[in-house]
Specification:
This protein is mainly alpha-helical. About 65% of the residues lie in helices and about 5% in strands. The protein has 24 helices and eight strands.
């Protein structure tokens, strides 16, 4: 068991911590959350989030606090801004281990549940990326597990303590992403209690978590209201009601969007779902933790699918209960001498990974230059090797007679691929989504009196890499539109005519610098005055122009 624990900890460090700072910062999400945190540190304002010095009301404050603390510890770099997300996944895996160890199979089952969570592709992808979803999922997981410990506890004092913890974690989740922190427990716990025939307990147990959730969230909620009375109106209606119900919601997708993407997000375990379902059927859902995990996974998933606005990261809180179901289902499947479903799933998946390897190698060797994902031979060679390694591990898992080794080899199959992804960012993504290196090349041109102008897509990136929070916007305000309607910020949004007057006023000084996507710059180019300097990293990349 000690060796197994070290292996799971090593898996987390290998995949989530060691390569964390290798990839370039990508737009818009990573630069946005990095810049809000940086501006908190520079301004000393830890109450009202700002982006580019403009009020930014799309999220509460806790995720920014954690990012800012990480930047304080590790500096202004890619590792620092991703560290809170990575740690959140590790903590979620630990919480899951404690739950499964106590209620669903013991120590080894707990380790397997943690390993399943760590190796799910969506959990890995989001957990090594600077967004707030992993942190929110950690608090939501802690809240749900605290509730279940309270539900299973018969001692009044311990039950009260776990219910208080449940409220604390709901409050922390609220401070990370808002009212959705309360929606997940409600849509999962109420049906669970009805299933358990314990719905009458709901009234008795809900007041204590509610009190502690308010104690955690109320101080900042009041402070931000006193500072910015419009915060809660915008945040509640625009970021919750409009996103859930409006046909014009941001990220508007069809009802089936999450259903279609979920199988890919749950890889590599998707191909074992038939074996998992078979094992769960044989259990007849007798264990309360299984019933709890089903409600925790299925009902929030349906809730997010019902929303008009959808992003794949929304269902991240559904993966901890999915890991419980996978672990318990596989465990029972092998106890009942199941073999066929695992064999078919692993073989099919090995065929898929082998096809990926062959296809990539063929494209790189014989395909036209415009279709080759990688310019460097070592990158595509390592990618092909990672897929072949994945294939071999799957085949080895099929050949094993020991059930535990089967699962270990299956779960270990994608490790090389997952570790390598930080080093194997395709050139097209670097060109389209990672302007940092290009911008830093001209950092010597940025002086104290420089007037920076950006398009709406790059404003957070320009602020982060040039360490400024007074950038003008050209071509629309984008996600800063709401903040730009305030009187003290309106002047930061420039029309083409205003930009022209600004350039003419400073013509020949080199003070005005425009950074924009190349395709947008092309539309503006004919109406712009003569540039002192202009450079681009390609037609699909970015432009740096000095006037």
């Amino acid at each position: 068991m000690k060796k197994s624990s070290i292996a799971v900890i090593g898996l987390f460090l290998l995949l989530y911590i060691l390569p964390l700072g290798v990839r370039p910062i990508v737009i818009p999400d990573e630069s946005r959350y990095a810049e809000v945190a940086r501006e908190m540190l520079v301004s000393g304002d830890w109450v009202v989030p700002h982006l580019n010095g403009v009020r930014y009301f799309e999220k509460p404050v806790l995720g920014y606090w954690l990012n800012a603390l990480s930047v304080m510890l590790f500096g202004e770099n890619a590792f620092a801004i991703r560290f809170p997300s990575a740690v959140a996944v590790g903590v979620s895996a630990l919480i899951l281990f404690l739950l499964v160890k106590r209620f669903a199979g013991g120590y080894s089952a707990g380790l397997l549940a943690a390993a399943v969570l760590l190796t799910c592709l969506e959990v890995f992808g989001v957990g090594t990326f600077s967004v707030l979803d992993s942190t929110f999922s950690m608090f939501a997981t802690a809240a749900m597990v605290s509730f279940f410990f309270a539900y299973m506890q018969w001692r009044p004092k311990k039950k009260a303590a776990f219910l208080a913890l449940f409220g604390v974690f709901c409050g922390l989740a609220f401070l990370t992403k808002g009212f959705i922190a309360f929606a997940i427990p409600v849509v999962a716990i109420v049906p669970f209690l009805i299933w358990e025939r314990g719905w009458k307990k709901l009234v008795k147990i809900c007041w204590l978590p509610l009190v502690f959730a308010l104690l955690v969230s109320f101080p900042w909620a009041v402070m931000v209201h006193l500072r910015e009375p419009d915060f809660w109106h915008f945040f509640f209606w625009n970021e919750h009601i409009r996103r859930f119900m409006s046909d014009s919601a941001q990220h508007n997708k069809s009802l089936w969007y999450l259903f279609l993407l979920f199988p890919g997000a749950a890889l590599p375990w998707t191909f074992l779902f038939p074996a998992v379902i078979s094992g769960m059927k044989q259990m007849r859902f007798e264990n309360p933790v299984i019933r709890f995990a089903i409600c925790w996974f299925l009902l929030p998933f349906l809730f997010f699918s019902a929303s008009n606005g959808k992003v794949l990261t929304y269902i991240l809180p559904c993966f901890p209960p999915l890991a419980i179901l996978i672990t318990t289902g596989l465990h029972n499947y092998f106890i009942n001498r199941g073999r066929k479903a695992f064999l078919i799933g692993a073989l099919l998946f090995s065929l898929v990974t082998a096809i990926f390897a062959v296809t990539l190698a063929s494209v790189q060797i014989a395909g036209p230059d415009g279709f080759k994902p990688f310019a460097q031979t070592w990158k595509w060679g390592l990618t092909v090797a990672a897929f072949l390694s994945w294939t071999l591990f799957l085949l080895f898992s099929v050949r094993q007679s020991d059930d535990q080794k089967k699962i270990i080899l299956y779960g270990a199959a994608p490790i090389l691929f997952m570790f390598s992804t930080s080093f194997l960012v395709p050139d097209l993504i670097r060109k389209h989504k990672a302007p940092g290196e290009f911008l830093l090349h001209y950092s010597h041109s940025i002086r104290p009196d420089t007037i920076l102008v950006s398009d709406k897509d790059l404003v957070g990136t320009v602020c982060w890499f040039y360490k400024q929070s007074d950038v003008y916007l050209l071509g629309g305000g984008g996600e800063l539109s709401y903040g730009l309607h305030y009187d003290d910020s309106k002047h930061r949004l420039l029309s083409p005519d205003q930009f022209m007057r600004l350039v003419l006023k400073n013509r020949g000084t080199g003070r005005v610098i425009l950074v924009a996507r190349a395709r947008k710059y092309k539309d503006w180019m004919q109406s712009l005055p003569k540039r002192l300097f202009e450079d681009s990293n390609g037609n699909d990349g970015f432009v740096f122009a000095q006037f």
